[in-house]
Amino acid sequence: MAQLFAGTSGWAYPSWRPDFYPEKLAQKKFLSYYATKLNTVEVNFTFRQLVKETTVQNWMQESPAHFKFGIKAHQVITHIKRLKGTQDFVPRFLQTIEPLAATGKLGPVLFQLPPNLKADAPLLKDFLATMPRTVPTAFEFRHDSWFSDATWDVLRSCNAALCVAETESLTTPDVATAPFVYYRFRKPTYSGDERTSMIDRVRQHLAEGRDVFAYFKHEETAAGAVYAVDLLGEVSKK
Question: Does the pLDDT of residue 208 top 80, yes or no?
Answer without folding.
Answer: yes
